[in-house]
Amino acid sequence: MDERRLIRVSKYLARHLRHDPGRIGLTLDPGGWVPVDTLLRAAAAHGFPITAAELWKVVEANDKRRYAIEDGRIRASQGHTVPVDLGLPAVEPPEVLYHGTVGRFLAAIKEEGLRPMNRHHVHLSPDRETATRVGARRGVPVVLVVAAGAMHASGHEFRVSANGVWLAGHVPPGYLRFPS
């Protein structure tokens, strides 16, 4: 499969497994899972046929491990805007985590902290490099340092998705270190 097709399939999956499953007639279970064969049939019925081999390639080749396949079912690892419970337990985070953004959002972040916006959680990275890549999707990246250990000690909960993305409900501005 060429790179363009890989990206198109991945974006199609993101749209329908994270944001709008009903658009192609999918119903996610409470954990966000849908049977693979149901997904493939729905995609084909709505004019975007995906082969099982293409689906596996997207899941296996995605460097961000955005999707998981288990027991004949598939789901997005995080980033949902539709109600799902990923069943991730609260865990103790490392002392620091990182968040990639761009300069135009800094004023709001300094005022309100990091909010999940239309998602369920704020997404945090375990390392500066990943946060830089995330921020670069929208322009010149700015990496914020999150005092995750201090947040956790203050009672904030953290979860970590299957692909290593750290999730928090909100990061108040007092736990953020901004670049000078």
UniProtKB/TrEMBL annotation:
PANTHER family: PUTATIVE PHOSPHOTRANSFERASE (PTHR12684), TRNA 2'-PHOSPHOTRANSFERASE 1 (PTHR12684:SF2). Its EC number is 2.7.1.-. The keyword NAD applies. Gene3D superfamilies: 3.20.170.30, RNA 2'-phosphotransferase, Tpt1/KptA family, N-terminal domain (1.10.10.970). Keywords: NAD, Transferase. Belongs to the KptA/TPT1 family. InterPro entries: Ptrans_KptA/Tpt1 (IPR002745), RNA_2'-PTrans_C (IPR042081), RNA_2'-PTrans_KptA (IPR022928), RNA_2'-PTrans_N (IPR042080). The gene is kptA. One of its GO terms (molecular function) is tRNA 2'-phosphotransferase activity. This is Probable RNA 2'-phosphotransferase. One of its GO terms (biological process) is tRNA splicing, via endonucleolytic cleavage and ligation. The keyword Transcription regulation does not apply. Coiled coil: none annotated. The lineage of its organism: Bacteria, Bacillati, Actinomycetota, Actinomycetes, Streptosporangiales. Removes the 2'-phosphate from RNA via an intermediate in which the phosphate is ADP-ribosylated by NAD followed by a presumed transesterification to release the RNA and generate ADP-ribose 1''-2''-cyclic phosphate (APPR>P). May function as an ADP-ribosylase. It holds the Pfam family PTS_2-RNA. It comes from the Bacteria.
